[in-house]
UniProtKB/TrEMBL annotation:
Residues 36-159 form the Gfo/Idh/MocA-like oxidoreductase N-terminal domain. GO terms for molecular function: nucleotide binding; oxidoreductase activity. InterPro entries: Gfo/Idh/MocA-like_OxRdtase_N, Gfo/Idh/MocA_oxidrdct_glycsds, GFO_IDH_MocA-like_dom, Glc-Fru_OxRdtase_bac, NAD(P)-bd_dom_sf. Residues 175-285 form the GFO/IDH/MocA-like oxidoreductase domain. It comes from Siphonobacter aquaeclarae. Coiled coil: none annotated. This is Glucose-fructose oxidoreductase. Keywords: Oxidoreductase.
Length: 360
């Protein structure tokens, strides 16, 4: 995009604040066309999805990296032309406070590390994007939200699906009661993970299918109903006990919503599945997949198809979140949205432990 077009687009969206020293972006920061993002943790998701998406974004770019592995720093520096001054490790990360190139820190680490790095980024005065699941506990999520509020920075959770027009389409059907009230949701998200010694199999690092793919199954139910569940009954299981010693391989959970709607949800590291079925008073809607990186599409009982093309969910998410930062408008998925899921996840684990239904 030409610089002129970019400026026009920003000003059309009422975001001229970016160029007039909007305080949240640092009153002394130089004027820039694009916000600088530093990725923290250069594993699968940063490498395969976020860094490529940051080559497509119009409102932000890959400005820096934070890694504990010097060899990765060298490889990324060469591939993405990242200057040495924008490369940090976990120890010297706090010095990022003095780096005007970095506007946003994007935390892409195992979930147990999210809290520490979100709080450190907030204290450094940077806006924070944090991957899902937001953190292993409600207390962690609350501390992260509070640190961002205290340091007057924004916190967005990487719920890429909520930026996808296909997901927004089924949310609208529920919101507008196209087929009346929701009666029943069936929601599943899982994949077969062949790894045997990864953080996803370790409790201390925030592993377990529930926090990982389970939040997509949960989001399917929450977004389709537009409601927050009031109770849950859950059961954890595994077919590979030699691998899933500390965390669940599979979680099945039944949710009850205030309107009376019910949801049957499942997630797993042992089964490839990804679908959503919503039954309303006067019709139905199906999505398959429901939380893929692309290709989410569906159909409804009246013959309407949901099939919006999307180039890069991650690029759209990053650009829309940046637009919200510069315009000081609400984020699509702020920290509070991550917290809503973790409240349910905590209740799910309580239900597994007690074998009983738990109120949320
Ligand atoms: P990964 O294991 O591939 O990468 C994790 C990174 O953290 C690695 O670079 C690793 O070196 C680093 N790390 C630092 N300390 C570590 C420690 N003590 N143990 C393990 N790794 C450590 O994981 P990933 O798949 O990239 O997931 C990272 C985050 O991104 C998670 O929160 C995950 O849920 C999320 N994620 C989101 C999506 C999505 O679609 N939004 C997809 C995949 C992953």
């Amino acid at each position: 995009m030409e610089r002129r077009d970019f400026l026009t687009q920003l000003s059309l969206a009422g975001t001229t604040a970016l160029f007039s020293g909007y305080p949240l972006l640092g009153a002394t920061a130089p004027k820039k066309d694009k916000l600088g993002v530093a990725l923290v943790g250069l594993g699968y998701y940063s490498t395969d999805l976020l860094a490529p998406a940051l080559q497509l974004t119009e409102r932000c770019y890959l400005a820096g990296i934070v890694t504990g592995t010097p060899a990765k720093a060298e490889a990324w520096k060469a591939k993405y032309h990242i200057p040495d001054k924008n490369i940090y490790n976990y120890q010297n990360f706090d010095q990022i406070a003095n780096n005007p190139d970095i506007d946003i820190v994007y935390v892409v680490l195992p979930p147990s590390m999210h809290r520490e790095f979100v709080v450190r980024a907030a204290k450094a005065g940077k806006h924070v994007f944090c991957e899902k699941p937001m953190a292993p506990s409600v207390a962690d999520c609350e501390a992260m939200i509070s640190a961002c509020q205290q340091n007057k920075v924004k916190l967005a959770i990487g719920y890429r699906c909520q930026h996808d027009p296909n997901i927004q389409a089924y949310m609208k059907v529920g919101r507008e009661r196209k087929f009346g009230k929701v009666k029943m949701v069936n929601s599943a998200a899982g994949y077969f993970d062949a790894r045997t010694d990864h953080w996803k199999q370790k409790k201390a690092l925030g592993g377990g299918a529930m926090g990982d793919m389970g939040v997509y199954a949960l989001q399917g139910a929450r977004l389709a109903t537009g409601e927050e569940p009031v109770s849950v009954l859950a059961q954890a299981s595994t077919t590979r006990p030699e691998i899933y010693k500390e965390v669940e391989e599979t979680m099945m959970f039944l949710l009850e919503f205030p309107s009376g709607a019910r949801a049957a949800c499942q997630t797993s590291f042992g089964i490839n599945m990804n679908y959503l079925q919503v039954n309303y008073e006067k019709g139905w809607l199906k999505m398959e997949p429901q939380s893929g990186y692309n290709g989410n599409n569906g159909s409804m009982s009246d013959g309407t198809l949901i099939n919006f093309p999307i180039k890069s969910q991650q690029a759209k998410q990053l650009d829309e979140d940046c637009l919200a930062l510069v315009g000081n408008t609400p984020l699509i998925a702020p920290g509070e949205e991550g917290l809503r899921d973790i409240r349910v996840v905590e209740a799910i684990y309580k239900s597994v432990a007690s074998g009983k239904s738990v109120k949320i």
